[in-house]
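[Discussion] Sanity-checking designs against the backbone

I'm trying to build intuition for which residues belong where. Below is a structure token string of 307 positions. I'd appreciate it if someone posts a full sequence so I can compare it with mine line by line.
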């Protein structure tokens, strides 16, 4: 067991692998059957491996190796048919039930040996076969190997789950499944047009209207996020906040959104706590009112900020 003083702990990973779409820990993608969850997952894999934009979001630069564990019939064939050009960066993993602890330990070793740094599990029902997912303590048993996989290997995970018919895309069964995830993607719609809602505790809710086919995913129109709504308001709250940070924030912490967020929460500017402050800074970066110079460089004025 390690006990580390907070001031000595240094974050070693990025919060987002694809901003507002995929975080660096567990992202839960849910939707009714046949809404295109696997197709969207394949587009996400392509964006990560190729470093290309998806839904106007740019993935971080990294050499991604993707592990995929599927539970439906012929899932390997489906993946190979959807993204054949990526097979040198994709590893098919034999499905493992959540109870098979020995198999999971072997998988952890293989993931580390092969350098797999992102993992897709398709789907929760297969992983948790035999468990009563309506009972929280059963779900906790199902999620344990997922948590260990992240802890042991450092890999981020996209977990796909079914939603009930006629729903808003929210995952079926216990709410614990959504509580376990850091970021949620809810997919709904019955035609080529889908609604993709992204929400969680490390960013503001974003709703996108998208066209989704096996060959492409693209935005039709993007509903405003909370930050975009404020940005368009006449009072100019977000630009004023960006200017306040640039004018008064200590130079020594301007490379760290978390530190700036903590500082903001102490300035009597309507930011209630450090986490809200960090979210506010990230929203300014997403809105291009602020920008980071280099991967971990100083946060400075963005291209949309008029000084």
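Best answer:
Here's mine. Compare freely.
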């Amino acid at each position: 067991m390690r006990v580390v003083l907070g001031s000595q702990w240094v974050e070693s990973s990025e919060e987002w692998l694809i901003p507002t779409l995929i975080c660096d820990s567990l992202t839960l993608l849910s939707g009714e059957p046949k809404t295109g969850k696997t197709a969207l997952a394949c587009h996400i894999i392509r964006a990560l491996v190729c470093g290309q934009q998806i839904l106007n979001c740019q993935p971080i630069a990294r050499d991604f190796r993707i592990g995929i564990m599927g539970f439906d019939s012929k899932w390997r064939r489906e993946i190979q048919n959807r993204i054949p050009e990526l097979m040198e960066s994709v590893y098919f993993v034999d499905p493992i039930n959540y109870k098979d602890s020995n198999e999971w330990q072997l998988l952890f070793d293989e993931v580390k040996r092969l350098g797999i740094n992102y993992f897709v599990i398709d789907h929760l029902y297969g992983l948790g076969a035999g468990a009563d997912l309506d009972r929280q303590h059963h779900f906790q048993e199902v999620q344990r190997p997922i948590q260990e996989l992240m802890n042991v290997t450092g890999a981020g995970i996209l977990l796909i789950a079914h939603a009930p018919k006629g729903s808003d895309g929210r995952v079926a069964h216990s709410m614990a499944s959504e509580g376990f995830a850091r970021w949620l993607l809810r997919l709904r719609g019955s035609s080529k047009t889908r609604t993709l809602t992204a929400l969680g505790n490390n960013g503001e809710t974003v709703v996108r209207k998208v066209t989704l086919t096996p060959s492409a995913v693209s935005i039709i129109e993007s509903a405003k996020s909370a930050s975009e709504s404020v940005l368009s308001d006449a009072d100019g709250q977000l630009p004023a906040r960006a200017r306040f940070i640039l004018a008064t924030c200590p130079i020594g912490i301007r490379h760290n959104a978390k530190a700036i967020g903590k500082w903001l929460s102490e300035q009597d500017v309507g930011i209630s706590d450090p986490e809200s402050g960090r979210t506010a800074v990230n929203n300014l970066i997403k809105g291009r009112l602020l920008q980071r110079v280099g991967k971990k460089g100083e946060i400075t004025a963005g291209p949309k900020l008029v000084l």
